[in-house]
Design a protein that fits this description.
113 residues, mainly alpha, 73% helix
Amino acid sequence: MREAAGWAHLRRDFHDFWISTKSEIAREALDRIGKLYNIERDISGQTADVRHAARQKFSLTKVEAFFAWSEQQLLRIPGKSNLAKAFRYGLNRGEAFSLLLTDGRVAIDNNPA
């Protein structure tokens, strides 16, 4: 059994911070996550094999870049801020957020549920 983390929860943390502060870093996080959702919209309703192939082709580099960028941002912001907490939440669960890349059955989030 493996944990699959939903990107909507991570996105919400950045969204809430952006709404209250208009932080450019939070905005960029939202934009990066939004690109993953754009890919998911294009492959919605496809078979698990098709979703897996599309994620390997289009999402893999974006997810890897998101986490690398997240680590860099933690060096730039106050460690106790809510923005830092959002980044740490994502980084600490990187494997769970990345499961959708290796298993086409996994959804980007569980919002429909």
